[in-house]
Design goal:
The chain is α+β, with helices and mostly antiparallel strands. The protein has a domain at 5-48 and 87-147: Cytidine Deaminase, domain 2 (3-Layer(aba) Sandwich), CATH 3.40.140.10. It has helices at 5-16, 56-60, 89-98, 131-139; strands at residues 27-32, 40-46, 122-125, 143-145. Strands 2-1-3-4 form a four-stranded mixed sheet, sandwiched between helices. Bound molecules: zinc ion (ZN) (2 copies). One zinc ion binds at residues 21-23, 56, 61, 63-64, 86. The site of one zinc ion has 8 residues, from loops.
């Protein structure tokens, strides 16, 4: 049970609690299972704003400053009053995953980053990824598992 899907989704949710965002805390964990070994954690991320801007907790959250009437859940993250200043959990997890990729075999035939791994990484996300993150996940050539819900 330790490696069950629901357990990894729970882990992603718990990790997401590290996010400073007052509006929504999202966590993402990239894991892989090399052959018969245990699952490996390859990367982790939670949503966080830019270092040089006030954090969400410090009132910097563009979404958090608005009421739910002014900025509905899942409204556009990239423009308008609800423009989110954060790098999303999924992208942070991919950055974490790829940061020490030096020395990994490069295989141009693999879509995305061009890294060849003997196994396919899977990202567990505590929420349904937004369309921008979905692109990043696709581009990285990894699978994703997230709670049931409409795609945005
Ligand atoms: Zn925020
Ligand atoms: Zn996103």
């Amino acid at each position: 049970m330790r490696n069950s899907t629901s357990n990894w989704l729970d882990n992603a949710k718990v990790w997401g609690q590290h996010s400073p965002c007052t509006r929504r805390k999202v966590g993402a964990i990239i894991v892989a299972r090399p052959w018969d070994a245990d699952f490996l954690v390859l990367g982790k991320g939670f949503n966080v704003g830019p270092e040089d801007e006030p954090s969400c907790e410090q009132g910097g959250c563009p979404r958090g400053r608005l009421s739910y009437e002014e900025c509905a859940a899942y409204s556009d993250y990239r423009s308008g009053p609800g423009r989110c200043h954060a790098t999303h959990a999924e992208v942070r997890a991919i950055e974490d995953f790829t940061k020490d990729m030096d020395g990994v075999t490069i295989d141009a035939s693999v879509p995305g980053w061009g890294f060849r791994l003997p196994y396919r990484p899977i990202m567990f996300v505590s929420e349904v990824p937004c369309k921008y993150c979905w692109k990043a996940i696709d581009h990285a050539g990894i699978g994703a598992i997230f709670p049931k819900g409409p795609r945005r």
